[in-house]
From TrEMBL:
<dbReference type="InterPro" id="IPR011961">
    <property type="entry name" value="RimM"/>
</dbReference>
<protein>
    <recommendedName>
        <fullName>Ribosome maturation factor RimM</fullName>
    </recommendedName>
</protein>
<dbReference type="InterPro" id="IPR011033">
    <property type="entry name" value="PRC_barrel-like_sf"/>
</dbReference>
<keyword id="KW-0143">Chaperone</keyword>
<feature type="domain" description="Ribosome maturation factor RimM PRC barrel">
    <location>
        <begin position="91"/>
        <end position="154"/>
    </location>
</feature>
<comment type="subunit">
    <text>Binds ribosomal protein uS19.</text>
</comment>
<comment type="similarity">
    <text>Belongs to the RimM family.</text>
</comment>
<dbReference type="GO" id="GO:0042274">
    <property type="term" value="P:ribosomal small subunit biogenesis"/>
</dbReference>
<dbReference type="GO" id="GO:0005737">
    <property type="term" value="C:cytoplasm"/>
</dbReference>
<dbReference type="InterPro" id="IPR056792">
    <property type="entry name" value="PRC_RimM"/>
</dbReference>
<comment type="function">
    <text>An accessory protein needed during the final step in the assembly of 30S ribosomal subunit, possibly for assembly of the head region. Essential for efficient processing of 16S rRNA. May be needed both before and after RbfA during the maturation of 16S rRNA. It has affinity for free ribosomal 30S subunits but not for 70S ribosomes.</text>
</comment>
<dbReference type="Pfam" id="PF24986">
    <property type="entry name" value="PRC_RimM"/>
</dbReference>
<dbReference type="InterPro" id="IPR002676">
    <property type="entry name" value="RimM_N"/>
</dbReference>
<dbReference type="InterPro" id="IPR036976">
    <property type="entry name" value="RimM_N_sf"/>
</dbReference>
<keyword id="KW-0698">rRNA processing</keyword>
<dbReference type="GO" id="GO:0043022">
    <property type="term" value="F:ribosome binding"/>
</dbReference>
<keyword id="KW-0690">Ribosome biogenesis</keyword>
């Protein structure tokens, strides 16, 4: 399990007083994890200033805020509460081996992403696969055994309209 867990990413500057947009990857208020830190170990103390805006302690103007755009903020794993029985953090899925219900290996979970429409897993290949992280597509998650069971959704190949070349 990774020792640092990605909790948020700083977006673009907002206004002239050092506010930044924030994309949080957690359900709890981001300030409950203060201080957070970046890849280099620099610490940040965040204060919410709206639905997706934060003020960072020591950042007082737009120029300072713009310098932080794109910064990823982490928290140490041991600062997170232990998940309940039959629960886990999405980051715990990375590295698990994926199998079909009949035991056919599908690869390893390389990443878990969520772009707003629900999480999906990237399985190493060959071929590389994207699998929606739903109960129907991933009915069994066994963190202790280091594996998941995947019921891959039906794949559909879309052909280009007649007369157009395939890429």
């Amino acid at each position: 399990m990774p020792s640092l867990i990605l909790m948020a990413e700083l977006g673009r500057a907002h206004g002239v007083r050092g506010l930044l947009r924030l994309k949080a990857h957690c359900e709890a208020p981001i300030e409950s994890y203060n201080p957070l830190r970046d890849e280099r170990g620099r610490e940040y103390v965040l204060s919410p200033r709206g639905a997706d805006l934060v003020q960072i302690q020591g950042v007082a103007d737009r120029n300072a805020a713009e310098a932080l755009t794109g910064t990823k903020l982490y928290v140490e794993r041991d600062r997170l509460p232990e998940p309940e029985a039959d629960e886990f953090y999405l980051t715990d899925l990375v590295g698990l081996q994926a199998f079909t219900a009949d035991g056919k290996p599908l690869g390893q979970v390389r990443a878990v992403d969520d772009h707003g429409a629900g999480a999906f897993l990237t399985l190493s290949g060959p071929p590389e696969r994207l699998v929606p992280f739903t109960l129907a597509a991933v009915p069994v998650v066994d963190i202790k055994a280091g594996r998941i069971t995947v019921d891959p959704p039906l794949e559909t190949e879309v052909k280009p309209p007649e007369g157009e070349a395939e890429e």
